[in-house]
Design a protein that fits this description.
Elements (H helix, E strand, L loop, with lengths): L1 E5 L2 E3 L5 E8 L8 E6 L6 E6 L6 E3 L7 E6 L4 E6 L8 E7 L11 E5 L2
């Protein structure tokens, strides 16, 4: 099982980024997929997840109305579009199957929001 995240970077407050995560080693379409983030000194938190059929979606209150999760089952890829970024969104962002059933994580992608 492998997750490869990309798309992070340095952006000013109010800016946007689109993260991508390519997954492999399991039946991608059968699993809900989530985006998680970990800021320095804090525990990893789930910011969004999406069911295999893309019908049921969850967002943490802190990102609701600013972030959009989507997936392409044909490409085994999950996306996170982040708009109106705030300094408190600074973190390493990871993707994984919901509740991380496989026990492995990717390297993540750093998102830094700073003037």
């Amino acid at each position: 099982v492998q997750f490869v995240e990309s798309g992070g970077g340095l952006v000013q407050p109010g800016g946007s980024l689109r993260l991508s995560c390519a997954a492999s080693g399991f039946t991608f379409s059968s699993y809900a997929m989530g985006w998680y983030r970990q800021a320095p000194g804090k525990e990893r938190e789930r910011v969004a997840h999406i069911r295999g059929n893309s019908i049921l979606i969850y967002y943490a209150d802190s990102v609701k109305d600013r972030f959009t999760i989507s997936r392409d089952n044909a490409k085994n890829t999950v996306y996170l579009k982040m708009n109106n970024l705030k300094p408190e969104d600074t973190a390493v962002y990871y993707c994984n199957a919901l509740n991380a059933p496989f026990g492995s994580w990717g390297q993540g992608t750093q998102v830094t929001v700073s003037p």
